[in-house]
Amino acid sequence: MHKTAVIYSIGKLTQILGGILFVPLGIALWDYRAESFSHVLTHPDVIGYLISIIFTLLLGTIAVSLYKGGRELQRAKEGYAIVAIGWIWMTFWTCLPLWFYLLDSRTGADAGWFATFTDAYFEIMSGYTTTGATILTDVEIVPRSLLFLRALSHWLGGMGIITLAIAIFPSMGVTAYQMFRGEVPGTRHDKLVPRLSQTVSILWGVYVLFTGAETVLLWLGGMSVFDSVCHSFATLATGGFSTKNASIAAFDSDYIRWVIIVFMYLAGINFLLHFSALRGNIKDMFTNREFRFYNGVIAAAIIIITLSLVIGGLGSEEMAANQFRSDPMSSEEFSTHYAEQSENVGTFYSAFRTASFQVLAIVTTTGFVTADFDLWPNFIRFLLVFLMFFGGCLGSTGGGMKMIRVVLVFKVAWNALKKMTQPRLVSPIKVGSQVVDDNQIVNVVSFAIFFVGLFIFVAFLLSFFMPDLTTAVACSIATLGNIGPGLAGVGAIENYSWIPLPGKWIAIFAMLLGRLEIFTVLIIFRPSVWRK
Fold first, then answer.
1. pLDDT band, very low/low/confident/very high, at 7 (cuts 50, 70, 90)
2. Percentage with pLDDT > 70 across the chain
3. 445 to 291, 328, 438, 449, 451: CA distances (angstroms)
């Protein structure tokens, strides 16, 4: 391991972060513009921004100046180390404004410096990993600059802050392709153009185009400009942070829900396919095997859930009332809540709209909510958890295992079953007309084994800190799959604030593992990686 390459690149990333943080600082200064300058400097979020900006620019500049030789070192393990360590490092400096705010605003047992730091780090890691799991119990009282910071962390994490660095500094030189592989989800990375920096610029161009389009459409639907930008950032990144406590349900607008449904769907598709379609090659999209499977899974889930809600309605009220909740409702409150949720799926259209929204939010791992799906029948709740494993397409901003991996795992299993009855059968595994080589099959199966194994292991660890097994299991896949809301104690109308500190750090690590595709993180724990 050439540590100079790692330090140099992280220094560059730190400098970029320092520049980016001027944007939420500007929002804070604008919101406090009526106050005197000396009083503005007493606001904890402003202090946090200033400290973060000063130290990121200073430390980044020192690292870049002292380790310039790192630019020319081109090795794979440096790339993976830069990605994994870089995300942990960037999260630390980004969470400082929120940490200072929580220290200033909280009282009681949750006001300790370590408890508030854990919550701030959890929130920003949830943002960067596009998980959308929150520890904030009332987001509507949080300063706008911090709400924007949460949304911005989504947007940067969705396409990847390191891919942004490659686009800004194409001459970074430090294992750029390996960093790209470590950060951008997928089993392989088809480059549209020979130069990696051009490919990354194309991806960011499509990303920005869709973000701008959704922002305008949401604004036309009645959202404020600020809310439109924050929700567009969260949608295109498949993140899920909202500026409202009730998430998208707070806007009570069919138009806004359908706009977000459309853009969640688009965000779950390979962005290289979007680029081809924008250039007029729409046929490439519809001949893509993964894209067809993605559509099939979504359509099947929507049909099943819609028909179930129309025919049978919500699940048993008694059973739903007995589910674990971190903040239980009184029997009267629950009955009112249950009646309201029943009305939300009382017609075929409302059931179809609600099912469409929640299926897209789960499959693409966006995590927005418009309904308390914990009240739905148990088999639908199980179906939603099952869909959490699927995730978006290769090269999308969605989390999960990715659709193409699910397709290949099914094909490998089916091929093995055929060979049990036909031992001499020669049947190569194909995706469309393309034969998948053995190395790719090994990588996909290995990833699936790791993903499921880690899901079980994380659920086992969380069960020590949670009073309910359903919550522990749902929290495991919701964080590892970067989804956000799960079931029971971390369900659609719950949050993660009540989880004990060790449980939060387990969830933080699970979110990082899920976003960086497991191997990128685990590889840095191998001692051989750090030897020269």
1. confident
2. 89
3. 20, 41, 11, 6, 10
Q: Which residue has the tokens 């161009």?
A: 205
Q: Spell out the SS3 assignment of 176-227.
A: HHHHHHHHCCCCCCCCCCCCHHHHHHHHHHHHHHHHHHHHHHHHHCCCCHHH
First-residue to last-residue Cα distance in the chain: 5
**CA dist., res. 448 & res. 368, Å (int):** 26
What does the chain come to in residues? 532
Contact at 8 Å (CB) between 57 and 18?
A: yes
Average pLDDT over residues 214-228: 96
Question: Which residues have C-beta within 8 Å of that of residue 518, sequence separation ≥ 6?
Answer: 447, 450, 451, 454
Q: How distant, in Å, are the alpha carbons of 24, 253, 467, 478 from that of 30?
A: 10, 29, 44, 36
* Across 264-288, average pLDDT: 87
In contact, 395 and 367? CB cutoff 8 Å: no
Rounded Cα distance between 321 and 329, Å, is 9
Consecutive H or E run containing 119? helix 113-128
Q: How far apart are CA 257 and CA 353, in angstroms?
A: 8
Contact of 31 with 73, CB cutoff 8 Å: no
> Ramachandran region of residue 402, left (φ > 0), alpha (ψ -120 to 50) or beta?
left
- DSSP states of 144-183: HHHHHHHHHHHHHHHH-HHHHHHHH-TT--SSHHHHHHHH
Report the candidate in 28, 34, 263, 66 with the shortest Cα–Cα distance to residue 152: 28
HEC-encoded secondary structure of 45-101 = HHHHHHHHHHHHHHHHHHHHHHCHHHHHCCCHHHHHHHHHHHHHHHHHHHHHHHHHH
Q: Which two tokens stand for residue 106?
A: 């909280």
Output the pTM of the full model.
Answer: 0.92
